[in-house]
Amino acid sequence: MVKEYFRPESLDEALELLAAPGALALAGGTWSLAFEARDKPERVVDIGRAVPRTIETRGASDGRGAELCLGAGATFQEIVDSKSTPPAIRAAATSMANRNTRNRATVGGNLGANKSCSSLAPILLALGASVEYKERSKASVTIALADWLAAPGGLVLTVIVPRADGLRASSLRASRTACDIATSTAACAFRLEGGKVAGLRIAIGGFGPRASLRPDVAALFEGKPLPTKADIEKTVAPLLQARADQRGSVEYKRLRGAALVADALHAAEEQI
Amino acid sequence: MKVDFKLNERSVSWDCAPGETLRAALRRKGIVSVRDGCDGEGSCGLCAVILDGRLVNSCQILAPQAEGSSVLTVDFFSRDRKLSIVQRALIDASCVQCGYCTPAVVLALHDLLARSPKPSDEELRDALSGTLCRCTGYEQFYDAARIASERLADPEYVVPLGPEFRPDLRHVGKDREKVDASALARGEKAFVEDRVDSDACHLKLLMSPYAHAWIKSIDVSKALDMPGVVDIVTHENCPDRVYTTAGQGFPEPSPHDQRMFPRKVRHVGDRVAAVLAETPEEAEAAIKAIVVEYEVLKPVLSIAEAKAPGAPIVHHGAVSYVVGDPPAGSSTEGDGRDDPIIYQFPLHADPHRNLAASVADGIGDVDKGFAEADVVIERTYVGKRVQCTPLEPHVVYAKVDADRLVIHASTQVPWHLRRIVAAAVGLPEHKIRVIKERVGGGFGAKQDIVLEDVAGYMAWKTRRPVLFRYDRAMEFMTSRTRHGMEITVKLGARRDGTLTAMDMKVEADTGPYGQHCLTVPMNAVSKSLPLLLCDNARFSVKTYYTNLSPAGAYQGYGAPKGSFALQGTLAELAFELGMDQLDLIEKNMVRSGSRLEILKSLGEGRPGAAVTLGTCGLDEMVARGRKAFAWGEPKPESDDPDWKIGRGAVIIQQGSGLPGLDAANAELRLLPDGSLLMLSGGADLGTGLDTVTAKAAAEIMKLDMTDVTVVSGDTDTTPFDKGAYASSGTYFSGNAAVRAAEDLREKCIKVASGILGEPESDLYLVPRGIVRGKRGEISLAKLAHMATQGEGHGDLVGFGNFKTEHAAFPYGAHFTEAAVNVRTGEVRLRRFHAYQDCGTPINPALAMGQIYGGVMKAIGHSLYEELLFDDQGRPLNLGFTDYKIPSIYEVPDDFHVELVPVEDEVGPFGGKSVSEISLNSAAPAISIAIHDAVGAWCRVWPFTPERVLRAMGKL
Questions:
Q1: Strand partners, B13
Q2: Which CATH superfamily hosts domain B194-297+387-478?
Q3: How much of chain B, in percent, has pLDDT values that exceed 90?
Q4: DSSP 8-state assignment for residue B405
Q5: Which candidate from B42, B65, B877 shows the least CB-CB separation from A46?
Q6: CB-based contact B266:B547 (threshold 8 Å)
Q7: Do A259 and B823 touch (CB under 8 A)?
Q8: Do B57 and A100 touch (CB under 8 A)?
Q9: What is the CATH number of the domain that holds A253?
């Protein structure tokens, strides 16, 4: 039962308020209010005004921008609509549930929920994003997103996506219906150097408690020409540890996840 | 806390609790249009508002978050009773069916047009991606968006006419505005939840956590003392009667096997106690304080388990029969502990062996037929349990007024509801008034008295107004699902494809109680076997009790599963014979003038009789589908090696009400100004039935649609009607309206004859409401005025009763083209065409909307939907997040409905039923298409990617 609602204007104020036991940081509310936190928190701290919301590129003089900065308060629909958003990130953002949800769900909320089915985390991981976050009474820190997701803390301020020329990237998801929670997600980014895969990062969701980078999967393809989809599936499937649930058996999920990785790699390869 | 914001461009300052959602606050303040279909999961979109220019779900926003914002609801577009461009377009495109989602759709389209005045189809899908609609099938939303977009550019834009029928009639066969569409599009008060008084108490249930258990003890003493608690009912103090919740005609074919609160719980979610309290929170707190001790029993979780020797017994009570004797060898003696079971007449049941009902019959010599066959195949098809999922969950508001029980209901069966609640509560029927409000989707689930008995009882007992609304989880757990069925079909044929014998064995799972236990599975046979001509045919039906969720009626009744099994096996036979599947269908299907001998053995609760068909549109429909799909040509090639394309076609049928069993009545009053009041017993559940009866009145009385108001489904003010089920609405209630109008017309002519001094035979009605003779004429207004004077002839009122022995079958031929991914098992529908014969389409576009919606529900069942249980019988997917019904993204790329009129001699203006039949095609058609694409037969619905891969041998 919610007894207190705050909408702090500053980050420090928000962190102070969140220090109370059981306080909920409310971003878009599409997960927390819908499921886990419904009726539970006594204090709700709406962080909408306390975290940045802008989507911008910064750090380069050629106008293209060296890195993309996603404010934690930016909604998925704002990512979709922003001209700064690269295609693979736009695809990931577009795949989030439906328009009503995209209009509320935020970058920070999606990463904070840290779900295995996250729409955004895989592509951000694959692109080597880092995250600037702040904990109470401490200076803000920027670390790799993968590290932050492994041990989340404080409030996310900005996600920084480095931009590199020649990078091919894609983000795909498998779900029963278009608006369903993903059964599995896969995103990848790499360069083709002399017809061979270079600098490959693959992130996969749906296998394990959260979406994560899979260097073991990436290592299968690094430095080689991209194999056929069938060969990718064959080698990737054994590496996927699935749990059976209502969206499928272990065998099915493994097969589906491997197919998704194959599709993601090939989709990225075809990008110009 | 104080929240200041702009609501519909007016400043408001509201006191809100910190945790109150914006939706709750809006409703509390009288904005009823923010509906709730998913308990705040954000998966239905019915509570949408436009917040600072963005379409959002108001259930996922706390009211304090609106501080300083601008909030628009549909009410903004409905000011001064006007309709916005979008509202008008939705009505013109016949998109308003039950209307529960309509306000959300209005907002989504306004939001879309503000961003993109000429939206693409993809933009429309994106705009509506968050809004679920179970009625319309989404297809006509594309028309609405186009119309609205055109009118943005040109306010005078006129919508091109759709198909029209019966040029001899003024309204029938033409598109007219659905009579309730404007109010629903404006988001006005219309549903049960809008009728609730501020002093209403809230009823909450304590539900069984076990699938099968004795209630050893129950202690409510602490709960009763808690603040706000008005009363608590359990099996210890509820009325000691058993009844069926199935809203069916008399004598009820379903066993009386349910007590208001059972002594033994028989499924997860079964009733243990009901708490009535002044607030929902107080009721929920009291629920938690009830102490129950259970003796947990092994549950019965499948048909195989139910019929296994030594299986746990779901019902132990004494079995008795009102008429007739127990079947030989059946057990009737109860254990003295469980609730009794009373059958109104024998159903070949043996409940103590979990057999709720059975029947077997046939024609000809089936064994001889198989012996004469060149090819015999036998296949078993399985249809899993699927949920009706009306977006408005079950809800009732019951109160005592002037020492009578008044029930505001969301029901398909107001009169059956009155009868069942009267019996359950122990009241004579005159003490109960049932008012059917607008129904936010029924689809069969609201043919059952799922919650009105306990709400009525507690209102009557406590004299306090009672609101009882299911949440979505309860809806999944304890509302009605389609019976689980395993159907084995054996077919024999000669080399040329001529069928020599058909055998159909249906086994069904009714769950813990026997509502519709015989009639639904029987319908799997009676609406599928008669499609094929064969001299030798037999069937058997066995329905078992289990401890899964209660099964019941669902649009199509048993026919979708029967059709799946029979049409699927027929296609498999074609494959065995090396024949084209459509050729085999045409070789054996019924046609105009066919003699349907099989109907001798398929009487609905009484002896059947063979029927000679009048005209039947199947030949024409199959021909149209063949042409559209270029059936004789090679199928299209996929340009992606992962995706293979296949095609499937099926023929389908349904009935139009229950001849000889059901009846409908209507009364048409001529009002003093010459306008009409139609009092129809019919229960319009969003299908447009009130529009059908209004049309009947306007057509026959030569008036305009705007001259008629329909009041319907109120047991005090309108005459008896069996209700809206078994595809009876247009045929029965519509025909009753026709007869009432004809009766009024004759009475008007008789009175006019006296006034004009001309013989009745010279008088006739002409538009608009004029009785004309050879010499003079008189308006209906003047007639009515004179009739109500002191020297007049009395009120001019027409009465109509309809019952019939005539069976009117609508037919259809549906075609699909599917793409199947050979790596992932995913299925996409590239095309779905429905050619359907509904007799004269009374409202063509509304009829098409019914078909789109029906097909879309069946596509959901075929590809995505399944109620899942764990190994203890606990349902697993209790919300729209986990149980996926189709969104607009799942609509086939080329989705097409075509009406092929074949007039019925008894139906109103030649009309037949239209909606239920549409659910009978998708499962077999898609299954056949999958086989055509990848060579694997999928015999278990839904065809999830995993099942497709297994059928292909890839898993």
A1: B4
A2: Aldehyde oxidase/xanthine dehydrogenase, a/b hammerhead (3.90.1170.50)
A3: 96
A4: E
A5: B65
A6: yes
A7: yes
A8: yes
A9: 3.30.390.50
